[in-house]
Specification:
By secondary structure, the chain is α+β, with helices and mostly antiparallel strands. It is 46% helix and 11% strand. The protein has two domains: 154 residues, DD-peptidase/beta-lactamase superfamily (Beta-lactamase), CATH 3.40.710; 132 residues, Beta-lactamase (3-Layer(aba) Sandwich). The protein is built from 14 helices and eight strands. Helix 5 packs across helix 8, helix 6 packs parallel to helix 9 and helix 7 packs across helix 9. The chain binds glutamine. The site of glutamine has 11 residues, from loops. It is an enzyme of class 3 (hydrolase).
């Protein structure tokens, strides 16, 4: 199996479909991104990286940051996190508020916005917002083995001005005492984590610890225990694509996490970490071409966790 050929073929076959889907426009800065782009990177646990297309163009990782902040929060408070956020798929959109009232301000999982905002509140404990953002950025430098990663302040400010639903979610949960810090502090951190810029190669490297039992094979550094890596992967499989999670498992069969910037991080446990990026989103807010590309990749490599 030649992974470089597979990546090149996918880029070539998707060429006629570039621009499919709809770029997220509720964050004005993201609406400016050219939709006719597609990139793919595959980083294997034996230390090789393959990439094709626009794999070195930086994009806003948005909700993919939820995986990394969850990793940080688990490191801080361990299992106590599950008192404040659940582990079940939500069956609703990423920014839905409907379940929160029935479920007393405890979000369904850490990968919908409400759950991610609770996770950010946990990482913020004992810090000023600026320090929490710094901690997140240093963690990303560490796991991606790349000190050049940076946050796009314009994207963060753009969402700060227009993130009305996230303010509603956070205030609602604060009413249930499941947000412990001032809402503008928590969301200040959340909008900055979402505004981290990465390219497919960097993102595939950052996800390697999830593919390799918690240890980044490029650096040899342990990020989490094998058990924790397995559990994060399980949650990515069941909850990583909001109400498109079942369909992603059906089509691709890999743990994955999407973002409205158009990126998807996917993990083939024991084999590889992959990143795809194309700005256009489908009706569930997940990257349209990115899902198709991962479907092709999983089919051609046989990497689905369900085998075959
Ligand atoms: N699905 C996403 O990527 C959503 C992240 C975005 N920052 C938001 O909160 O709306």
């Amino acid at each position: 199996m030649n992974l470089q050929t597979i990546a090149d073929d996918i880029v070539r076959e998707l060429q006629p479909r570039l621009g499919e889907g709809k770029v997220a426009d509720y964050i004005p800065e993201l609406a400016k991104v050219d939709p006719n782009q597609f990139g793919i990177a595959i980083a294997t646990v034996d230390g090789k990286t393959y990439h094709a297309g626009d794999a070195e163009t930086h994009f806003s990782i948005q909700s993919i940051s939820k995986v990394f902040m969850l990793t940080l929060a688990l490191g801080k408070v361990g299992e106590a996190i599950w008192k404040r956020v659940g582990r079940e798929p939500s069956g609703s959109s990423f920014n839905s508020i409907v379940q929160l009232e029935h479920e007393h301000g405890i979000p369904r999982n850490p990968f919908i916005n409400a759950g991610a905002i609770v996770v950010t509140d946990i990482v913020l404990a004992g810090h000023a917002p600026r320090e929490a953002i710094g901690e997140f950025l240093r963690f990303m430098h560490f796991i991606a083995n790349d000190e050049t990663l940076s946050i796009d302040e314009k994207v963060a400010q753009s969402e700060q001005r227009t993130g009305f639903r996230n303010f509603a979610l956070a205030n609602f949960m604060r009413g249930f005492r499941n947000i412990h810090h001032p809402v503008d502090h928590v969301l200040g951190v959340y909008f900055h984590q979402c505004a981290l810029m990465m390219n497919c190669v960097q993102l595939a490297h950052a996800g390697l610890y999830l593919a390799n039992h918690g240890t980044n094979p490029l650096t040899g550094f342990s990020v989490v225990s094998p058990r924790r890596a397995r559990r994060i992967n399980a949650m990515m499989l069941t909850c990583g694509h909001y109400d498109g999670s079942g369909d992603f498992a059906f089509r691709v069969g890999l743990p994955g996490k999407s973002g409205v910037g158009g990126g998807i991080l996917a993990v083939a446990p024991g084999k590889a970490s992959m990143a795809v990026w194309s700005p256009g989103l489908d009706a569930t807010g997940n990257p349209a071409l990115g899902s198709v590309a991962l479907e092709m990749l999983a089919a051609r490599t046989g990497w689905s966790v369900f085998a075959g």
